[in-house]
Amino acid sequence: MQMTRRSFMGSAVSAAALASMPLESFAAGRKILIMASSVDIPNFDPHVATGYAPAMLFRNTYDALVRVVGTPPEVKPGLAVSWTVSEDQKHYEFKLDPTAKFQDGSPVTAESVVYSFKRIVKLKRGPSWMMAGIVDADSVKAVDAQTVAFDLKAPFAPFLQVLPWMFIVNQAVVEANIGGDDGQAYLMKNTAGSGPFKMGRVAPGNLYEFIRVKDDWHQGGGNLEGAIWKIVREASTERMMLQRKEANIALELYAEDMAALKDNPAVVSVIEPEYRTFSIKMNTAKGPLADKNLRKAISYAFNYQSMLDAAGPAELMVGPLPTGIFGHDPSLTVYRHDMEKAKEYLAKSEYKDGGIKLSVMHATGYENQRRWSLLLLEALKSLNIELDIRPATWPDTVAAAQSPDTMPSFMCLFQTANYADPDNVAFAAYHSSRNGQWQNPVYKNEEVDKLIEAARIEIDQTKRAELYKKFQELVIDDAPDIFGVLEKRKLGFGANVKNFVFTPVAANAIELLPLSLD
């Protein structure tokens, strides 16, 4: 769907009317799936926005060359029905589905794919980091109307795994609304995709409506006529909506919510492991936390066991990479609660006696983040440091990450892997090219950058693992984060939701097409 500004504003007005009626009344007699989430969708541009809520929108209103499905994650056809890879892993060719079409009825062609990848590379935002140093503007070409070829600048083992996040836009629509920013202003509030759902009513901070496209080109799928992404600020409210059958899916639940739902026959609980890290990032670029000794003091003062106790099904992180992923070293020496060492490093810092006030930002509605912020407050109190705790919405968090001046002293962040490779976490969260993005607001270390860059193009797995070992050791020594917990994903589904398949990458960016409602 290509929405005009007038239709978008009209949608917002309609959404206000929709918001005034109970959602179950709106969905009565229709196959409308209601998802409860605490996270807003601030930007509709698939080449700019990041985060799981935008990813959910992109997965359903756009298509990529391939999809990722199941556990372990498998790459499946999307816009491409087949592909070939050269022996040196640098040349890829994709054959497009000849039936694929955009929501305005025009065909998805190889030129559409080329245009989209060139736009991703040019904007240097959104998912572009996944291909940095691998794909440039000259790397992708249209062989013919239905064939796309990539010549990578270097071999890249997870190339197929990153492609599900490179969504293809309708060139004609973007060019017609190009403005002076390559269509960014237009795509911030409009879609130009080929996905099975189009955007309906939109009320930022309240709800987003998805409508199934009629005569869509995708084969199969469930019986959904549409879906509502409903913003709910508290996990307990999400749980109650699920219990009262006012929502079909609850996306941010905690251990106590899962316990409360355990014996409810109308609810199916999903608790699955995934590569999902939680860390408390520090402002290493400006303010007191630019002092590495102070960062180490705080890292030792933090009570990790209490953090784990509050997390529910989880385990403590051992360094910056998630346990079990390729290259992770479980024998690393990491920070654990030790007040003698905390005081030793505090004495080495510029703030020997404490006496300062810091700030932490955590996500509104995430009870665990609030609890962990309180643990941070207690840790800092033991060092004679005060802490200002600031709840924030997701758009506020993204905005605060844009510079050292706007970032608070600490920022609480979950990062869910988009692909099952250490490059995902390493590059997104620790490479300096990501500065200004929420995954890595300010951290910068040239030696760390070089290790990340070398590891992503190394095809010898033994050498690659050694590069990641050195990367982990350097990052731990820098102490840019309080390395927190790996929580299991906790989702709640109404028993009437059918055909959901868990995937441990972007698990809460729900793919609507396969789902049905009884």
TrEMBL record:
Domain Solute-binding protein family, chain residue ranges per copy: 74-436
Name of protein: Peptide/nickel transport system substrate-binding protein
Localization in the cell: Periplasm
CDD domains: PBP2_NikA_DppA_OppA_like_7
Family indicated by similarity: Belongs to the bacterial solute-binding protein 5 family.
Keywords in alphabetical order: Signal
Pfam families: SBP_bac_5
Residues making up the signal peptide according to the UniProt record: 1-27
InterPro entries listed in its UniProt record: Peptide/Ni-bd, SBP_5, SBP_5_dom, TAT_signal
UniProt source species: Neorhizobium huautlense
